[in-house]
Design brief:
Layout: H1 4-8, H2 12-16, H3 24-34, E1 46-49, H4 55-62, E2 68-72, H5 75-84, E3 89-92, H6 95-100, E4 106-112, H7 120-133, E5 134-145, H8 152-156, H9 168-177, E6 181-188, H10 195-219, E7 236-242
Parallel strand pairs: 1-2, 1-4, 2-3, 4-5
Antiparallel strand pairs: 5-7, 6-7
Helix pairs in contact: 3-4
Length: 244
């Protein structure tokens, strides 16, 4: 019997058709709005798990970083990544298995739209393996959808391979338990600068503000934690944590 992962990850992006097309202009603009200050050292060893066609690593190359490694299960996506950057290191491997084979190897480990594809046990295994693979002081960056955002169920169930969903509270809970420090969880919501993008941004802020108020009413205005926006209702979460 075939598993859903075997079938759907074989040619992951193609299953979505145009939804997963490679468009560097659009994607790089999204990255500019999503990520904080990049590593100060251009020689930092950077790993992208679930790298797909190499879009994020292509953006990092454009920023001057050269020690880049991409890991993904989809050979069809990696073939595109290799064509775009043949000199770069690309690995077709399970991300957790790759991390478990590494010790103090990377300054930054990045995973965008990846952890929601894991089971709860796999997510904890992933965090422990990422901590092992980071150098002391190294940083883990995760970008995932926000489970307490309005309409988050449309995102969770819009991809059959999604298994878990995180909130700021649950993300911080897991990171602390796995030995990470300097934890930050903040909302992200990118819209283009076009007229339609500006309209979407305005409407989104109105909906998110109402949902944020509802959360505060529901939870009684619980105290905010430094760096962790517990009442965040933005569609996506940017999660950052360090290895001591």
């Amino acid at each position: 019997m075939h598993s859903f992962r075997e079938i759907l990850y074989r040619d992951y992006s193609a299953s979505f058709g145009a939804q997963k097309r490679l468009d560097a202009t659009v994607q790089h603009a999204q990255y500019e709005g999503a990520y904080p200050a990049l590593p100060a050292d251009a020689r930092a060893a950077i790993l992208d798990l679930g790298c797909g066609k190499g879009e994020w690593l292509g953006w990092m190359r454009s920023k001057g970083y050269a020690m880049l490694t991409g890991v993904d299960l989809s050979e069809s996506d990696l073939s595109i990544a290799r064509r775009e950057a043949p000199a770069q290191t690309w690995m077709q491997e399970n991300g957790i298995a790759f991390l478990e084979s590494q010790t103090a190897a990377f300054d930054l480990i990045h995973a965008k739209d990846v952890v929601e594809h894991m089971s709860k046990d796999e997510f904890i295994q992933f965090l422990l393996a990422a901590r092992q693979a980071l150098r002391p002081g190294g940083v883990l960056w995760l970008l995932t959808f926000n489970a307490q955002s309005p309409l988050s169920t449309a995102t969770r169930y819009g991809d059959f391979t999604h298994e878990i969903a995180l909130t700021p509270s649950s993300a911080a809970q897991c990171l602390r338990a796995c030995g990470f420090t300097d934890i930050s969880v903040q909302g992200r919501h990118h819209c283009s600068s076009s007229v339609s993008g500006r309209v979407r941004s305005l409407l989104g802020k109105l909906v998110q503000s109402a949902a944020r108020l509802a959360l505060k009413v529901r939870h009684g205005g619980r105290a905010e934690e430094g760096g962790i926006d517990l009442h965040c209702t933005a569609p996506d979460l940017f999660i950052s944590a360090a290895k001591p």
